[in-house]
Amino acid sequence: MAALAVAVSVVACTTAIPGQPTSQGSVVSHDDPDAQGGVDPSFVENTDDGEIDRLAATVITDLRVFWGERFPAAFGKRFDDLHGGYHSVDTADAESEAPPCAESSVEVEGNAFYCPTADVIAWDRAALLPVLRDRFGEAAVMLVLAHEMGHAVQNRTGAGLSDRKANPGRFPTILIEAMADCYAGSFVRWVADGKAEHLDIAKERLDSALESLISFRDPIGTEQTDRGAHGDAFDRVSAFQDGYEQGVELCAGMTVENRTFTLSGFIDAGDQARGGNLRFDQMVESITPGLNTYFSGLLGSAGKQWAEPTVRAVADAPDCTGAEQGPVAFCPDGRVVELDTGKELPAIHTDIGDYATATLMASRYALAALSAAGKPLDGEDARKSVVCLSGAFTGSLFVARQRFLSPGDLDEAVQVLLDYDYAARDAKGQSIGAGFDRVTAFRRGFTQGGGKCGITG
After folding, report:
1. Is 7 left (phi over 0), alpha (psi -120 to 50) or beta?
2. What is the C-alpha separation between 417 and 420, in angstroms, rounded?
3. What is 197-208 written as a DSSP string?
4. Distance (Å, whole) CA 191 – CA 205
5. Which H or E element spans position 121?
6. Which residues are bridge partners to 103 per DSSP?
7. Across the chain, what does the average pLDDT equal?
8. C-alpha–C-alpha distance, residues 457 and 451, integer Å
């Protein structure tokens, strides 16, 4: 991955960043007297004093304060600022000054990086940060620079370049990148809690920042052992959310023994040829028996009886409950799961991938499970439960002896949870508003199992 990579030396790499332009507002605090312009970037080498560098300088300034506070508490020693400093690079000008670890400015195109040999953070102010800002909002810039500062923290705490060279099995790239994502999450939580002097952000604005993070996931089919592996979308979002929810200490304690990664290679040549995706009809046919088996077992363990729903295709959005559940709906009368096979569900399947379809179906089977367990089908608890149970079902596939999940499936689950609120809708069509919270609920089920999703008790 280009934009969030730890670098020893910079190589030429142009990053094409997907996504549609979005307006997410400024992350610079409106209470700040310099809110319109951000922090003076004069401490940044080669700055043009433009709005991108002012935004970057604002983020760096609050990062320095955060680590000045948290580093001694977490590691028992003072945080020393980067002796190589911070460098802005104008990659649109081949004659522009190159930062340390690069021979020319062009080599930095599409990159933000931390170079441990020079102890420096540098960023492309022409073709990376402004594109991230325009596609995902200013919070994406905050996340990228917080990730790079996370690598600087590693270089000070026993997970730096020399440590990785001495013990590469202990510090594979995928773990190093997860730790940096986690450190970024802990910083963003500090900002969201209103502790930063110059920055602020509400949780509901984190969705676009997460979209920026997963846009730099590894290519589908990358193996965890790949020297450049950074993780799939689920790995990266999980690490960020762990830092956001549990703080720096958890990030510092990550090891290959206590961290499970979901990045994987293709099952076989056929899976690779399909790009890990089944056709819409194939996915519906193949996932349905597994859903019934899983929820039958879960309900049985709770002393309840599972009645297999009837799956019925409809030509448009299901409306059997008089409320909009989305392109998949559970109809309590008759225990039917209706699928919009004519319009939106196939479109989501094509746009995101086959496991987006599976995730939405799992959420409606989860609503059927709540019904069988005698639980309410609407309200906040029901909304959390259906997403959690979708994650629990997916987790059961992940650990199953016979592999079902393909590379990219968990990326597709994260994407559909961020882009749509359908998986979290209750029987009355009400949902969890923030994609961040939907992913959190899904991850709870995935990691802890269906017993933690409110189906019992």
Report:
1. beta
2. 6
3. SSB---GGGHHH
4. 12
5. strand 120-124
6. none
7. 89
8. 10
